[in-house]
Amino acid sequence: MASGKESDESADSPSSPKNIYKDPDDGRQRFLLELEFVQCLANPTYIHYLAQNRYFEDEAFIGYLKYLQYWQQPEYIKFIMYPHSLFFLELLQNANFRHAMAHPGNKELAHRQQFYYWKNYRNNRLKHILPRPLPEPPVAPPAPAPPQQPMPPVTAPTIAMPAAPAPVLSPMQYVNPQGSSLAKTDMRNSAVDRRKRKEILVQMGLRPLQIERMMTFR
Questions:
Q1: Rounded to two decimals, what is the model's pTM?
Q2: CB 56 within 8 A of CB 99
Q3: Which residues contact 55 (CB under 8 A, 6 or more apart)?
Q4: Which keywords describe this protein according to UniProt (predicted)?
Q5: pLDDT mean over 104-111
Q6: What pLDDT score does 85 carry?
Q7: Is 114 within 8 Å of 84 (Cβ atoms)?
Q8: 5 burial class (0-12, 13-18, 19+ CB within 10 angstroms)?
Q9: Where are the domains of the chain?
Q10: What is the pLDDT of residues 188-204, one digit of tens each?
Q11: Which of 44, 56, 126, 194 could pair with 111 in a Cys bridge, judged by C-beta atoms 3.0 to 4.6 Å apart?
């Protein structure tokens, strides 16, 4: 009888493996509920709601926030769609942040900073990911063009016309015109002059042949 009672008491004791709680769906429902709650923390307005309703004054709730930090582990973090939720979950571990989020101004400030982060996130990331281009060498300014000299005016080509040939004088025109002051050649005077030159050449001691040549090239 004693052995039967001991067996019944051991079956009803909390430490018995038969009384361990087991989720009917292998923890799927619990996983989804905690994932939804953690991702709600990405909204500063929801954190402000929790602070206004004094959830952060409950020690059990603060312990629950510490328990939810397991979502930062690699095997769970891959299910998080809003990374800001883990950032705010970390901040909620600080009592000063929990009390500050009860003020509407702090809620608006957190929401504004979150918006600026989303707005500039891509550009800020690209600054660190993309390689920076090398600085281009300074380009020398182009040399000023020399001033263009004015082109001389184009003149029409002039063709030199040959001068008209002078009229050929007739043999009769070589005769001295009437009333000319030129003295007529006197044949007798020329003979006298020839004789005088011949005498002068003879006196100079020239030979007759030389005298004839001299007289010929007069």
A1: 0.48
A2: yes
A3: 61
A4: Activator, Nucleus, Transcription, Transcription regulation
A5: 91
A6: 92
A7: yes
A8: exposed
A9: 25-131
A10: 556 667 777 777 777 77
A11: 44
pLDDT at 139: 76
Q: What's the distance, CA 218 to chain centroid? A: 99
More confident: 87 or 174: 87
Element (H or E) spanning 60, and its range? helix 59-67
Instruction: Please state, in angstroms and rounded to a whole number, the distance separating the CA atoms of residues 77 and 70.
Output: 9
CA distance readout (Å), 71 to 34, 53, 88, 98: 9, 25, 12, 20
DSSP codes, 94-114: SHHHHHHTTSHHHHHHHHHHH
Q: What is the pLDDT of residues 6-56, one digit of tens each?
A: 444 444 444 445 567 676 777 788 999 999 999 999 999 999 999 999 999
Fold entry, domain 25-131? Arc Repressor Mutant, subunit A (1.10.10)
> Does 151 score more than 50 pLDDT?
yes
- Cβ 48 vs Cβ 101: under 8 Å: yes
Q: What is the dihedral of CA 43, 49, 50, 52, to 10 degrees?
A: 140
- Given a contact cutoff of 8 angstroms between Cβ atoms, the answer to whether 197 and 212 are in contact is no
The torsion angles phi and psi of 54, rounded to 5 degrees, stand at: 60, 30
CA distance 42 to 49: 13
